Amino acid sequence: MRGVLWWVRSLMGDHDYERFVAHRARAHPGEPVPTERDYWRARYADADRNPGARCC
Questions:
Q1: The pTM is what?
Q2: Which end of the chain is more exposed for a tag (fewer CB within 10 A), N or C?
Q3: Cβ distance 39 to 20 under 8 Å?
Q4: Which Pfam families does its entry note (predicted)?
Q5: What's CA 13's distance to the chain center, in Å?
Q6: 21-31 as b/e, with b when 16 or more CB fall inside 10 Å?
Q7: Residue 14 gets which letter from DSSP?
C-alpha cells in the first residue's frame, strides 16, 4: 500500500517541489529558494505560456 501511495503522489507531482529544492541546493548553493507557493505559481504560469504537448 505504501508503494502505491508513493506512486500516486509522484504521478500527481507531490514530490516535484522537494526535488526542485534539492536541485537548487546542489546546483545553486547560497541562492534563495522560492517558497512552495511561488514554485507552483511559476510552474503553472510557465505551462500556460508554453502549452506544448499535453492532454488538457
A1: 0.70
A2: C
A3: yes
A4: Sel_put (PF04328)
A5: 6
A6: eeebeeeeeee
A7: T
